[in-house]
User: Fold these one by one.
Assistant:
Number 1:
Amino acid sequence: MSVGETSQVQTELFSLAPEERPGVASALWDECQRRAFSCSSCPLAATRKTVVFGEGNERSKLMFVGEGPGADEDESGRPFVGRAGQLLTQILSAAGIDRKEVYITNVVKCRPPENRTPLPEEMAACDVFLQTQILLIKPSILVLLGATPTKWILKTTESISKLRGRWFDWRGIAVMPMFHPSYLLRFPDGKKQGSPKHLSWIDIQEVYKQWSNVKTAGRLEGVNFG
Ligand code: SF4
């Protein structure tokens, strides 16, 4: 599935009658996943064990995007299951978010060697899968975990420290950058005011509040973008 094909998919999907869309979207999702599992569009295909497509509720209004699979994810085929993933699950749970209720994926679907940051050309090659996932899930809120997805999606050079906790309007989706949980693991003391863990706790509570607004009122409320 190329980038051109993705925008064609978008055009065709929205030209369908509303009652026809779920069946077509489901078929497109399966096709996107099938293509990802056999993908060799970038060099990461040569070193991966498994393609980590994503997991969770494909109809959720809340979606999380991280950087890429690590060793545990590469073994299991599931995103965010290692130490950082367990911390993410704990943070979600503490905020009242059941991990099964949201969708979680990464910018690249295959593990970069030694957990290095994915190269721009690798992210570009994989972007068709991420864009198709976002297109078909249609989240109201997109949480970007760490600098890599934040810079990739928002096309910014600003640091994650400056961007976290702020809302951005990206193609009609409310985007919230947060620290990546692997970064938070470096700070065992989470209670200290202003620490990365404390700031992440504030951020996830704001996400939860707005997700609740979406579920009850159908929209975010009282959000200042930018
Ligand atoms: S990272 Fe993405 S583009 Fe690269 S081989 Fe894996 S699925 Fe394909």
Note: Residues 61 and 215 are 8 Å apart (CA to CA).
Number 2:
Amino acid sequence: MVMAAQLGAVIRDPEFVQFHPTAIDIGRDPAPLATEALRGDGAVLIDRNGHRFMPDVHEHAELAPRDVVARAVHAQNLSGAGAYLDAREAVGAQFPDHFPAVFKACMSGGIDPRTNPIPVAPAAHYHMGGVETDLDGFTGVPGLWAVGECASTGVHGANRLASNSLLEGLVFGHRAAQAIHRAPTRQVQAQAADAPCELPQSVLQTLRSAVSAQAGVTRSAEGLTTLLSLLDALEAEHGSAPALIAARFLTQGALVREESRGGHCRTDFPQRAEPGRHTRLTLSDLYPAHAKLRKPEPPEMIPALPRHLIHALITRALEEDLGGRGDVTSLATIPADKNANFVIKSRANGVLAGQQPPTPVLIRSIAISPSPGASVMAIFLKRAI
Ligand SMILES: Cc1cc2nc3c(=O)[nH]c(=O)nc-3n(C[C@H](O)[C@H](O)[C@H](O)COP(=O)(O)OP(=O)(O)OC[C@H]3O[C@@H](n4cnc5c(N)ncnc54)[C@H](O)[C@@H]3O)c2cc1C
């Protein structure tokens, strides 16, 4: 992201960071994650006295959106009440079989999740913001495309639906490759560049702690201003290391966005401000000495689709998933000879993956499904209606 900014690219919405609500808090860095499937399976979030706190926060309790659960877990930890994921009843003895990776991580930290609640804390998980691109990954800077988590393509908004980074990699990777292939080739003169200055480990650690505290799950003008002063001091001492520049983009974006939206929560501006707008920052907005860089024009945004096209798209997506050919993502990522048994559990009628799908999706699923697996799904969905 910083390399692109140094070439003049716009960094869009750098303040939008998603936090995973339940990293296992056993002092490891990076913290291992307790998968959200545990909450889907019925594990509950409790404080150190065993009180289940999510029903007081959101009607969907533990199945509330990621940012809501992350903020609640954060608030519990800040207040000293503690946050624990309790899977003793919902998963219990089946933990090692059903969640082997999480089981191993817990045991390595001395916690047996079959008999003890797991201490949890939110952890930085995904950066929705990043290098502004059009739908082909083009940044507006001649010769520069950005794909993956570093890009801000516009598909995630202020939050991200789980697993949508696969979309970034596959779909936008493909589109960018095609665009690069179509682009005229240019002769470029290679130039030696100075290696970016590195921060000593201890300083990097100071920076990470400060960013987590002041620009993490919750933010305020006071905390963000304090953070900017720290960034000034660290830059004066260590030079403009990429980590400091990245932190400055995030902090500046969070400061100018005086509202709460998706993953960005300002305690001093708890409401959403309408209309929504993008933050667009370049290096010259942060460092006037770079003022010679020209800000690229914003790319053409995805226009709002008319209703009939949305319905056609839902039908196409469901035909792909349920229509007998198989789901392209599964076909692309799971070897054909891999077989496994699994159980799909719904916590309530009409709930899929913790959410209630919109009615048009349900109705079309039933209309489409000829395959055996799909009919089971259709029966389930029929019941749901
Ligand atoms: C714990 C965890 C679980 C996740 N689970 C899911 C999930 O279930 N589903 C999902 O869709 N997404 C998930 N995500 C998000 C997803 O993993 C990432 O968004 C995705 O891997 C990003 O891929 P990328 O190639 O864009 O970036 P990266 O994988 O970060 O690759 C960037 C590469 O660039 C290299 N690099 C950096 N700087 C330089 C430099 N200056 N010079 C040269 N190389 C450099 C890095 O070393 C790295 O190899 C998860 C993320 C985390 C942290």
Note: The chain has four domains: 2-15+128-182, 17-126, 201-285, 307-384.
